[in-house]
């Protein structure tokens, strides 16, 4: 089975995010976050039989949509109280975003990152001035480490997804997409902890209530798909996938009820399908998107749902890819 239908599941869950939250985030990040371009490829339309538009968050500051939520969160908190340090945990894109935002706003950043995080993401995080605390992804607990740092230092915790301000910031990308392409039939979004899709679906359903929202996960990281099928959050072992940004073992406590209400299905893609799509995008469109960021596009390219004849919006969520990993991926693509 490629995904799971949400209908009839989880009734009564309270939404924790509104369109007004997304609007406020747009006002807060205006002039700081990039308004990223929307790409279209006639060749991709021919391959898929759909008309597909790509919101290029791989070209966002720090290389991913994460900048939107991180800036909205830290700036909003600074408007309420003063603090001198923030703490975050991330495999890379959220880490870089928090590090850059902290630098811009003049606070110290300490980031908890897995030892096997891509070297380019580690280097970029440190390059923005953050201190990095490494841990074992498969044996350690990043939330426990982060929360201890917050207690010890009196710092602000900036979670990667399970926070209304983070979700609202993420949703601003879809708000921009629908301003440019208002008549989309589908929105396709990569899913990790659920912050991006919760914010995206909130914006999409307000601006175009009839739109259908699909999430996309790696086949080996299907915790959200399982959670929708069961009607409650399911935790899986830390997944093994090339999509390092989608390796969260459980969907968020706050994001899940929003996903239940607003997302039709979660589609699943393989590592090989993400590599194939990444290579196609680089070769045909001359754009670099990391495996996590290209997951939604892979679901459309490999026909995980019936998109034929429809207008589809896809979020390219990030483009931070180490050149050595890129070379390895391209070496696996048949010539």
SSE topology sketch:
Elements: E1 3-5, H1 19-29, E2 38-40, H2 42-48, E3 51-56, H3 66-80, E4 85-89, H4 93-105, E5 108-114, H5 119-127, E6 131-135, H6 142-153, E7 156-157, H7 164-180, E8 186-190, H8 195-207, E9 212-218, H9 223-230, H10 255-262, E10 265-269, H11 271-285, H12 295-301, E11 311-316, H13 323-331
Parallel strand pairs: 3-11, 4-5, 4-7, 5-6, 8-9, 8-11, 9-10
Antiparallel strand pairs: 1-10, 2-3
Helix pairs in contact: 1-7, 3-4, 3-7, 4-5, 7-8, 8-10, 11-12
Class computed from helices, strands and strand pairing: alpha/beta
Determine the mean pLDDT.
92
- The helicity comes to 40-55%
E-strand count: 11
Specify the oligomeric state.
single chain
Low-confidence stretches: 1-14
**What is the count of helical runs?**
13
> Whole-Å distance between the termini?
30 Å
* Strand line-up across the major sheet: 1-10-9-8-11-3-2
Global shape = globular
Largest beta sheet, briefly? 7 strands, mixed
User: What would you report as the Rg, rounded to the nearest angstrom?
Assistant: 18 Å
Instruction: Indicate the proportion of strand residues.
Output: 15-25%
Q: What is the string of SSEs from the N terminus onward?
A: EHEHEHEHEHEHEHEHEHHEHHEH
What does this protein structure show overall?
55% of the residues are buried. Helix 3 (66-80) packs across helix 4, helix 3 (66-80) crosses helix 7 (164-180) and helix 11 (271-285) packs across helix 12. The protein has helices at residues 19-29, 42-48, 66-80, 93-105, 119-127, 142-153, 164-180, 195-207, 223-230, 255-262, 271-285, 295-301, 323-331; strands spanning 3-5, 38-40, 51-56, 85-89, 108-114, 131-135, 156-157, 186-190, 212-218, 265-269, 311-316. The strands form 2 sheets. Strands 1-10-9-8-11-3-2 form a 7-stranded mixed sheet, with helices on both faces. Strands 6-5-4-7 form a 4-stranded parallel sheet, sandwiched between helices. The chain is an alpha/beta fold.
